[in-house]
Amino acid sequence: MAYVDGFIVPVPKAKLEAYKEMARTAGDVWMEYGALSYVECIGDDIPYGEVTSFPRAVQATEEETVVFSWITYKDRASRDEILAKVMADPRLAGEEWKQVFDGKRMIYGGFQAFLTL
Q1: For residue 1, what pLDDT band results from cuts at 50, 70 and 90?
Q2: Of 19, 21, 51, 77, which one is least surrounded by beta carbons within 10 A?
Q3: pTM for the full model?
């Protein structure tokens, strides 16, 4: 069954276009190295919850929105191999990412799929 990397990150609304451009580049890199899919979603209906919510999870401000992303792979071994190549790719190196969003507030993790309908 597939393996999934999931990400939630706050992005300043004023920098959404720059984020989209960077995401397109990142998506191309991931797909080139063998990811099965690469999806980026901009928050549309993400209310600020009283106890927990997507905005609370990443401490999003009124000037930010939440981006929810995932990448799928054949399996964990494929993910580990692809991720190593992605992290070494010069197209994703540099300080540009730090200028578009606060990576310290990004939430991410790898997940083993158990059901796909």
Answers
A1: confident
A2: 51
A3: 0.92
Q: Are 77 and 2 spatial neighbours (Cβ–Cβ below 8 Å)? A: no
- Residue 100 in domain: no
Paired tokens of 2: 């597939």
Q: What is the residue type of 29?
A: V
Sign of the Cα pseudo-torsion (94, 67, 25, 106, in order): positive
**E strands in the chain:** 3-12, 37-42, 64-73, 107-112
What range does the domain containing 28 cover? 3-95
**Least trusted range by pLDDT, from 7-11, 70-74, 77-81, 103-107:** 103-107
